[in-house]
Structure formats: structure tokens, C-alpha cells
């Protein structure tokens, strides 16, 4: 188990390094922060001083080495907009993002899991068709479209909820509903497929033939074996909590990390963008690593296969 864990941690670190490296190069090739921040009418001397001050006049490989040297010492850089620590700028927005993404995650699970299980148990009935129709609609509709529709209904037409901002807890309802409903549709589809595959296995028929109550067959045999595929999609959603909020936060003017990312990219605030991408990368990698370790704990056969593949 130790070797399995160390192998996954090593792969996680390599993945995060590649993410940050790719973002570093793309950001510096996508535009000149001096022109974006100082404006097109600034004198050439101001551009030159800005680039020198932030080290942008050096070759990109030197900037890269200096950046990773600073990161290894815990220095993630400062914002080019106001000079504050980029980590502080991002850290101020994290609680607001978690305030909508964590409730949305619970909403996805609370709706998606029972819906998927119900659709599988009532396969090819009107219940199954209804759940899958709604699920397909939720899966295919973009989050910004669903967000705008919800805002039109509950904010504009009915006037029950605010359409944007973060002043009160009511402002969080529409972003949570938008992310929760779309995620629930995805979980429902995966759960249904996993349950149908398990319900068709011989050991399920054998358990039923032994006289076990169907409810016991489902809870004791089907659900545990269908957990791994469902665990995969839930783990992915945990890892993409921040990344998945980018569009929704922009739609509802929610001042979280996602909206900050859009603003920082537009302003070429390199250090802030890199901190956010580093945070997103660590979150996704940590979630995937946790899921991988849970795989090995739930089913030791998977751990053995991973070890054989890595040897």
C-alpha cells in the first residue's frame, strides 16, 4: 500500500508541475502585461521600467527558473495591479467560492444519487424515461444558459431572488442551484449506468435466487459494487469545485475565485493567474489522488493492478 501511495503522489506532483509550467509559458506568450496594465498611451520609458521591475525583460527560461525557485521558497509573487501578495488576493476570494461550491456539491449528490438509483431499479419504465430525459437536458445545457434561465424566472419574472451580487445568503441560491442541478444530472447518468451493470451480474441473480429480500440485495450487494464508477465522477466534481465556478460566478457577479480568474487573465495579472491555476491544479490532483487511494481501499484488486503496471 505504501508503494502504491507514493507512486500516486509522485504522479500528482508531476501533473501539478506540468499544469503550472504550461500556464507560465502560455501567459507570457499571450500578451504584454505592461501594455494592458499601463494602457496604450503610456510612454516607452514606462513600459521599459515596468518590464524591468517585474523581470519581464529577461528570457522566458530565466523567468521560469526564477519563478520555480521563488515558489520552492514559498514566494508565489505579487499582483501587478496593486502590489499585494498574489496569495493574499486569491485567499480573500476562496471563502466566497467555497460558500457556493460546497453546498452545490452536496446538492448534486443528494439529487443525483437517488435519481440514478431509482432510474436503474425502474429501468425502461416511465420513471426511468422521465429521470433520464431531465438528466440529459441538465447534462447538455451549458451552465451559463441554465443560470440565465433561472435568473429570468426567479429574479426577473417572480422577483423572489436577487440576480447577482453577494450581499446576503439569498444571493447564493441561484449560483448553488445552477451548479447543483447540472452536476446532479451528470451523477444520475453515471449512477444509473453503474447500477445497471452491477444488477446484470451473476452474483446479483444468485443472491436473489437464495431468497434474499430485494432491498437487501440492492443495499448489500448492488450499491457497494456500483460505488467505484460513481466515486470517480464525484471525485472529479470535488476536484473541479473552483474551476467549475468560473462561468457561474461571472453570470451572477459572484466575487469568488472564478470571477477573479477571468479578471486576472484579462488584465494579464500573471502572479494572480498562476496562484489560481496552482490552486485549481492542487485541488484536482488531490481529489483524484484521494479517489485513487479509495479505489485501492475499496477494491484491493485495483491496487494490485496499479502496482503491477508501475513495476
TrEMBL record:
Q: Where is the ABC transmembrane type-1 domain?
A: 94-295
The record's listing under Gene3D superfamilies reads: MetI-like
Tell me which InterPro entries the record gives: BPD_transp_1_N (IPR045621), MetI-like (IPR000515), MetI-like_sf (IPR035906)
Spell out where the chain crosses the membrane.
Answer: 12-31, 96-122, 134-156, 168-188, 231-252, 272-298
Task: List locations, semicolon-separated.
Answer: Cell membrane
Molecular function terms from GO: dipeptide transmembrane transporter activity
What PROSITE patterns has UniProt attached to this entry?
Answer: ABC_TM1 (PS50928)
For membrane topology, the record states: Multi-pass membrane protein
Domain of life assignment:
Bacteria
Q: Which GO terms describe its cellular component?
A: plasma membrane
Q: Just give the chief location class.
A: membrane
Which keywords does this chain's UniProt record carry?
Cell membrane, Membrane, Transmembrane, Transmembrane helix, Transport
Please report which protein family the annotation says this sequence is part of. Answer: Belongs to the binding-protein-dependent transport system permease family.
Name of the featured protein = ABC transporter permease
Instruction: Write down the species.
Output: Flavimaribacter sediminis
